[in-house]
Please model this.
Amino acid sequence: MKIVVYGAGVMAQYVKESIINSKNEFVGFVDPLGKGDFVNLKGENSNVEYDAIIDFSHFSLIDDVLEAGIAKKVPVLVATTGHTEEQLKKIEKAAELIPVIKATNTSLGVNIVNEIVAFATKLLKDFDIEIVEKHHNRKIDAPSGTASTLLEIVKENLNDGNDYRTVYGREGYSKRAEKEIGVHAIRGGNIVGEHTVIYAKNDEIIEIKHEALSRKMFSDGAVKAIEFLSGKNAGKYTMRDVLGINK
Ligand SMILES: NC(=O)C1=CN([C@@H]2O[C@H](COP(=O)(O)OP(=O)(O)OC[C@H]3O[C@@H](n4cnc5c(N)ncnc54)[C@H](OP(=O)(O)O)[C@@H]3O)[C@@H](O)[C@H]2O)C=CC1
Ligand SMILES: O=C(O)C1=N[C@H](C(=O)O)C[C@H](O)C1
Model:
């Protein structure tokens, strides 16, 4: 496949390497801010040949990313995080026309952790549940996309998940309510990414944790995901589909 990468940051470079080390062809980066030596999918250079798009850029670029996918009817992996509800709906809508994966985390490990958390939450309903994520100081969105996905999974697996209130960080004076899930974002240095779901009860604590030690597994996972989408019908697919994780 000829793959275009949206983004020009740290992850985009890793994805380029993963594409080069696969059987696919790296076409170029699409620079979010339009500077530097990048491919231009619009205007006079709109004859750039590509048959897949991987997006690790900025959430504000989602319209461009989806437009480029729809224009050529090629699969799109949206690995960028931080989208608004409205933007997420646009991604759903695009999936009516082209094959799309929206993945907040493309590592194998986190996708397995998602399964473990679903299972654990069913068994640990009466524990206090808190989610903690840690990332580098360049990260702009909080909580992380992965933490938001973990929160969704926790809520889905509590009988009365919709009755729970999400508390983002804490300050001031008040006891923890019974039906509350705390979500906490730590930022510092060059932490690649760490996610922990804590289940606490009087006298016992269970922690389910994933720690990323490099970014390579994100980019390798992204290439695997776009390869999976090749030749698929329009629709919304997931990393569970890519990794063959059955319900
Ligand atoms: N799904 C997954 O597994 C993973 C997802 N991610 C996500 O991928 C995305 C990119 O991460 P990363 O490479 O670390 O981030 P970087 O900050 O290194 O790169 C982001 C890119 O977006 C550009 N950008 C920044 N601000 C704006 C803006 N306001 N408008 C348009 N473009 C902008 C940057 O340009 P410039 O360099 O000029 O600032 C850069 O090209 C993030 O959303 C992150 O959460 C990251 C890792 C794994
Ligand atoms: O910005 C990052 O770096 C990461 N972002 C993703 C997220 O928001 O969950 C995935 C990973 O944790 C790294």
User: Anything to note?
Assistant: Residues 7-12, 32-33, 56-58, 60-61, 79-82, 103-106, 138, 145, 218 surround NDP (ligand 1) (CB under 6 Å). Residues 128 and 200 are 5 Å apart (CA to CA). Residues 108-123 form the longest helix (16 residues).
